[in-house]
Design a protein that fits this description.
Elements (H helix, E strand, L loop, with lengths): L1 H44 L8 H5 L6 H5 L64 H14 L3 H6 L12 H4 L10 E7 L4 H13 L6 E8 L9 H7 L5 E5 L6 H9 L6 E5 L11 H9 L11 E2 L6 E2 L7 E5 L5 E5 L2 H6 L17 E3 L1
Parallel strand pairs: 1-2, 1-4, 2-3
Antiparallel strand pairs: 4-9, 5-6, 7-8
């Protein structure tokens, strides 16, 4: 009897973990099927109103094809629910404006600047590649191959191109009363296109109050393109406030950021990508919350530059969203929670968010 009992007990001990493993696998498989089915249904109904995982960051860089692929993930400006009533703000996410008119003209130092030139006022510029000469067509194709965006079009656009003042009218009237802080901007790059990199630098210099801009630190993460070596140093030298730090080997984004952060002299570090364009009044809203509380980390609204036409697409202030994770630990954009909407006195106040994408931000 004891022998039989021990035999059954031994079989039960062996069978128990196998049974649990099978149950776990079945549950995981059913969850995956449910998730896929739900996602497919949402896509078919065009009801998916936030961006998931890599797509959340992809839409915050150059737009173009990425923006087209995410078309169903972006809530239209006149977001309506199925019953014809406006959807709740907890469901709203950032809106991409497609209307051709601009919000406000830029303040131009050079009155002779031609606003009808390619790309001016943030307008897109297109070229019929089929009508280019063989030499120009080669440049056009190589621009996409080397940069994953239309570097040929970028080279035709001024490095000082004008952009509209896309701030809400109320934002232009805000008087920041916190003690002013100086900003050190850190931009890391690897084999960046010449015109895109320099347009990023010029937009920062042109649209940042000199009293707030301490320095711009460009960290070259071991680029091997010739235009990013001595030609870049020679170009930047007369600009002042621009420092180039060169890595002796490929280090990656985080180590490169740390290399730039190690030499900053300003009160606040602002990490930016090397393919951005700053608009009027971009810096003050980032510095002010940190001036009031140095433990605050501030992220800006990131608008979209089309990767093919270089059209500047901007978002509405009423369509802010916050970052968060789902149970699969994928980063998502979510509507502003009810408790946060009640806390804010008006929609122009900064929004608290538990997480951030991590690409562009300011920190003490």
């Amino acid at each position: 009897m004891n022998i039989h009992l021990r035999r059954y007990l031994f079989r039960f001990i062996i069978f128990l973990p196998v049974a649990w493993l099978l149950i776990i696998l079945i549950v995981l498989q059913s969850n995956e099927i449910t998730t896929n089915t739900s996602s497919n249904a949402k896509l078919k109904d065009n009801n998916l109103n936030h961006r998931v995982g890599r797509e959340a960051d992809e839409a915050d860089a150059f737009g173009g094809d990425a923006l087209v692929r995410l078309g169903n993930h972006i809530v239209p400006l006149n977001n309506k629910s199925t019953n014809g009533q406006p959807s709740s703000s907890s469901e709203a996410v950032r809106v991409i404006h497609e209307k051709p008119e601009q919000v406000a003209p830029p303040q131009l130092d050079n009155s002779k600047q031609d606003l009808n030139a390619p790309g001016e006022m943030g307008k897109g510029f297109e070229v019929n590649k089929d009508k280019l000469t063989p030499e120009e067509r080669k440049k056009y194709d190589e621009g996409f191959q080397k940069n994953a965006f239309n570097a040929y079009i970028s080279d035709l656009i001024s490095m000082h191109r004008s952009l509209p003042d896309v701030r809400d009218p109320g934002c232009r009237k805000i008087q920041y009363k916190a003690p002013p802080a100086t900003a050190s901007i850190v931009m890391c790059f690897h084999n960046e296109a010449w015109s895109v990199l320099l347009r990023s630098v010029h937009s920062l210099i042109d649209r940042t109050p000199p009293s707030l801009l301490k320095e711009i630190i460009l960290v070259d993460d071991f680029s091997d393109m010739e235009h990013l070596k001595k030609p870049l140093d020679d170009y930047l030298k007369p600009l002042g406030k621009v420092i180039v730090v060169r890595q002796s080997k490929r280090e990656g984004l985080i180590r490169s950021r740390l290399a730039g952060a190690a030499i900053v002299t300003g009160d606040v570090i602002v990490f930016l990508d090397s393919h951005i364009e700053a608009t009027e009044g971009w810096l003050e809203p980032l510095l002010d919350p940190i001036s009031e509380n140095r433990t605050t980390v501030v992220t800006p609204v990131i608008d979209v530059i089309d990767d093919t036409t270089f059209k500047y697409n901007y978002g509405a202030v009423s369509s802010l969203s916050v970052g968060g994770f789902d149970w699969n630990l994928q980063f998502n954009w979510h509507g502003v929670p009810e408790r946060e909407r009640k806390r804010r006195k008006h929609e122009l106040e900064p929004v608290r968010t538990p997480t951030m994408a991590g690409g562009l931000f300011a920190i003490s």
